[in-house]
Write a structure and sequence with these properties.
Blueprint (H helix, E strand, L loop, with lengths): L4 H10 L4 H10 L4 H37 E7 L2 E7 H10 L1 H13 L3 E6 L5 H21 L18 E4 L1
Antiparallel strand pairs: 1-2, 1-3, 3-4
């Protein structure tokens, strides 16, 4: 069936697309207006889901970056004995509290400085791993959910640097 300008205008009035997209959809569906509307809505919905997944990816990567930038450091004479993300230190405290407490007591007896620091510079390796994981999650979510919408709220926090020092 031949696609006419009137058919394209009708499709454009029902679905917010360009002339080119409307013409292509009508040609793919042999001029069937209803099938064209359904196809265009599906593609627009997929684009919307991809955009929202991208924004969610960015949000979670930022939160993870901030979480890994919070460091637990044990120093003696300006030499780092321990420099790990605070999350790992808290997990160690949760699963092996006796080992961590004994280690902290030994560090205090040895006159080590114990610091909890927020570092502005993020590690490239952490970002790379997080981006790979979130890409896989995004791909899986797109396969599972085709029509559901994801609500994303963004919060802009300024980067800052603070330290808590225990001597």
């Amino acid at each position: 069936m031949k696609v006419t300008l009137e058919m394209i205008d009708e499709l454009r009035s029902r679905v917010n697309v360009t002339y080119e997209e409307a013409k292509k959809a009508l040609e793919q569906n042999d001029g069937d207006l209803v099938k064209s509307i359904i196809d265009l809505e599906k593609t627009k919905n997929k684009e919307n889901i991809k955009y929202k997944a991208y924004k969610a990816n960015q949000k979670y990567a930022k939160v993870a970056d901030q979480a890994f930038s919070l460091r637990f450091i044990v120093k003696k004479n300006d030499e780092n004995f321990i420099n790990i993300p605070l999350i790992l230190a808290l997990l160690a405290l949760l699963f092996a509290p006796h080992v961590v407490i004994v280690g902290l007591i030994i560090a205090l007896i040895a006159k080590c400085k114990i610091r909890i620091t927020i570092v502005k510079k993020y590690k490239k390796e952490v970002k790379k791993v997080l981006n790979n994981v979130t890409e896989k999650i995004k791909e899986t979510a797109e396969k599972i959910i085709e029509t559901d919408e994801v609500n994303v709220k963004e919060k802009n926090d300024d980067e800052y640097e603070e330290e808590i020092i225990i001597e």
